[in-house]
Amino acid sequence: MQKYFINENIELNKSFKIESSDQHHIEKVMRNKNGDQIICVDLKHIQYLCSIENVQEGTILPIEKLDINNELDVEVTLVYALPKGDKFEFVLQKACELGVHHIIPLSSKRCVVKLTKDKFNKKLPRYQKILKEASEQSGRNRIPSIEEVKTIKELKPYLKDYNLVAYEETAKQHEHGELFHTLQQLKAGDQLLIIVGCEGGFDESEIQELNEMGVKCCSLGNRILRSETAPLYLMSVIGYSRELTK
Asked: Which CATH number is 3-66 given?
């Protein structure tokens, strides 16, 4: 059943109008009719079973509150150094499907892409649309937030209970324990920040700076992963450890 995120708090048996873009999707893409059912999620991340009252006007009637929570029980923030091409959009979509809560684009020394605040703000509506659609498709209760581009020096206020940076030199030294030990310590409600570099990885001075903030280096195994693969590997491992091992 198709899901839509609503920019208001829903009340049972009280009709509301859905956004025009969602109304268009309901009528023209999904070919829904009056009386068809959809799921809507409100600002409190609560899901409701709803009936379409008037498909052309986009009028929706909530008929049942659903006790569904498809979120990870730990809050994950992904810091991702800007890659080339459309890889950032790909990672946005897939990390959202895998349960990420917050995304922070990072500008590091080896980033080829340099986004100014103005350029980023022009792209932001597209990024938010990708996250919204991925959240709807994957059955999320919430849409991940995305911050403006940060530098390493600006990451300190965003540090969480646990903070890891994927670093290939750690893998080369066969030090594979940090990620495993962190996942073993995580409890429901904990917050975890994971940092992944761009194609060229991180400069040694950047790793030192992160270590001084309390961020620990971790290996992602014996193989060197592409920049767009590494965050998805991390999100998959986190999801597996929290949802499929209990």
From this structure: 2.40.240.20
